[in-house]
Amino acid sequence: MNAIDVAVIGGDGIGPEVTEQALRVARTVLSKRGIELKETPYDLGARRWHATGQTLTDDDLAALSGHDAILLGAIGDPSVPSGILERDLLLRLRFAFDHYVNLRPSIRYPGVPSPLADPGEIDFIVVREGTEGLYCGNGGSVRRGTAHEIATEVSVNTAYGVRRLVRYAFEVAAARERKHLTLVHKHNVLVNAGDLWRRTVAEIGEEFPSVSTDYLHIDAATIFLVTDPARFDVIVTDNLFGDILTDEAGAISGGVGLAASANLNPEGAFPSMFEPVHGSAPDIAGTNTADPIAAIGSLVLMLNHLGIREAANDVQQAVSTHMAQRAELAAAGIPYEVTTSGVGDAICAAL
Ligand code: IPM
Ligand code: MN
Q1: Residues 84 and 215 in one domain
Q2: Residues 98, 243, 291, 314: which is the catalytic one?
Q3: Gene3D superfamilies, per this entry (predicted)?
Q4: Would you state the pLDDT for residue 49?
Q5: Do 4 and 25 have their domain in common?
Q6: In the prediction, which pLDDT does 1 show?
Q7: Which of 216, 234, 253 lies at the terminal end of a domain, its last residue?
Q8: 135 is known as an active-site residue
Q9: d(Cα 79, Cα 275) in Å, to the nearest integer?
Q10: What pLDDT is stored for residue 111 in this prediction?
Q11: According to the model, what pLDDT value does residue 57 have?
Q12: Is 243 a catalytic residue?
């Protein structure tokens, strides 16, 4: 491979700042390996919406679909009514490009402060469904604003959607050392969807005899995530449970500023999209204090997805080196002061 063609959506709040650091790292690592990085910025998010009323047009989608991958910062801004940018931009991208796998690894770098007194080893990956569940926008409101209002959101779970996601999760688990897959759901209450997910894991599990499985209700899973995170290897779950669990996972492993994610269309019919788990953090936008590690980790996922494994490994190695320096400082009682550009400098220097 001698060139990659990446669409860049900086988005809102801290999105553009952290994405810029990921791009600096990408330019550095790729130029060393003689690979050209073609970057095409897309002006999407609050600024564009205020200026034009547009979130994501069909033309935007058509243009985006021509790239190898999409690197995204963050979407969401308090100046835009809640849900507009989330639904019509971010979720529309995930749905339009059939990003049915939302991959969210959780790794705690040694010595990095965690809110858990004794976190133990944290090295698991959440395989979150990305195109179904309660995120479908399937629902409505009747008698809105009256005492008799009824608001519904109906979770959609198709055999097709659950099967392809569960199969992907088994493949991920089979390739890992511990080969353990935990289904997280709530089948004691969500009897229909819960039953479909459970049957699907049982059925597909027969094709993966090397992978052990267990099951946790979502509420219990949130407890085990803080009491015994080491028990987890691969978690497979639906869209909303996965959303909630991965924020918690980010927090216990050192903060959502470190948590990377990939929205994958594994078959490659559409470009996959890589973004931090965190949001746009408007309160610290423009202050150069957001940690870009999640964005840089998302770049690692992107390079791996594009098959540029040596470059991905180089960046991952540089991140680990940098995180070890942070741990050393923490051990000496000097907390590392994150600046967005400073972290980018450090990673580029380590490459
Ligand atoms: C995430 C975010 C999004 C989600 C929001 C912004 C729609 O929280 O990527 O986790 O709920 O998926
Ligand atoms: Mn979330």
Answers
A1: no
A2: 243
A3: Isopropylmalate Dehydrogenase (3.40.718.10)
A4: 98
A5: yes
A6: 79
A7: 253
A8: yes
A9: 22
A10: 87
A11: 97
A12: yes
Residues of the chain with pLDDT under 70: none
Burial call 18-39: b when 16+ CB within 10 Å, e when fewer: bbbbbbbbbebbbeeeebeeee
Distance CA(241)–CA(261), nearest Å, equals 15
Answer yes or no: is 345 within a domain.
Answer: yes
pLDDT for 312: 98
Atom of ligand 1 minimally distant from the CA of 246: 10
pLDDT at 250: 96
Torsion of CA 43, 48, 49, 54, to 10 degrees: -70
Say if ligand 1 is within 6 A of residue 88 CB.
no
Q: Are residues 134 and 237 in the same domain?
A: yes
In terms of domains, do 217 and 341 share one? no
> Which atom of ligand 1 lies closest to the CA of 261?
9
CB-proximal residues (5 Å) to ion ligand 2: 243
Split into its structural domains, the chain has a count of 2
Report whether residue 153 contacts ligand 1, using a CB cutoff of 6 Å. no
ipTM surpasses 0.85: yes
